[in-house]
Write a structure and sequence with these properties.
five-stranded parallel sheet, two-stranded antiparallel sheet, 7 helices, Rossmann fold, alpha/beta, single chain
Length: about 170
């Protein structure tokens, strides 16, 4: 049975509770024989998402008219994120960075990995995303994870990375 590591973007989409593809993928997982214990996140995911939410909250307070989301909704996202991370921590589904993951991350730091944003802009993958990818490649107990992330052409250039796009499994 495969085990899965959700990307920070997918986790963020689950936290939003807007019926986005990652949330629908997670809801449909049990029906596909993927159980909660089979789905994990990297230790960098809570840090990444909390930082993004705090930045969004600060920006929304400073300029409410320019904010992507209003302050009360961002606070809801923060509460939902905390519950999500507490559930994963309680069930030992947050994968800590160990020596093997750190070594693989070091290899990935030397790789140029470029993603495309929904609006077509290209950007270099941040270090935290490379930690997630390293975690997926190393896995747990010598079994790599399937990385749950939205399609990026760059995934194909990472040797050994198995990816599942939530868009392919969540369409009704």
């Amino acid at each position: 049975m495969s085990r899965y590591l959700m990307s920070s973007q997918c986790v963020f989409d689950v936290i939003k509770r807007r019926n986005l593809d990652a949330e629908l993928w997670l809801e449909a997982a049990d029906a596909r024989g993927i159980y909660a214990d089979d789905i994990c996140i990297s230790a960098v995911t809570p840090m990444t998402i909390r930082w993004q939410l705090e930045q969004a909250l600060t920006a929304a307070r400073a300029k409410p008219e320019a904010a992507a989301y209003p302050v009360p909704l961002i606070r809801d996202f923060i509460d939902q994120a905390n519950r999500f991370f507490e559930d994963f921590a309680r069930d030992d589904r947050i994968i800590a960075m160990d020596h093997r993951i750190a070594v693989r991350w070091g290899d990935l730091l030397d790789m140029k990995i470029t993603y495309g944003s929904p609006d077509g802009r290209l950007y270099d993958v941040p270090s935290a995303t490379k930690v997630e990818i390293a975690t997926a490649l190393v896995g747990r107990g010598d079994f790599p994870f399937v990385y749950v992330d939205y399609h990026q052409d760059a995934h194909a250039g990472i040797p050994g990375l198995a990816v599942e796009n939530p868009e392919k499994f969540s369409r009704r």
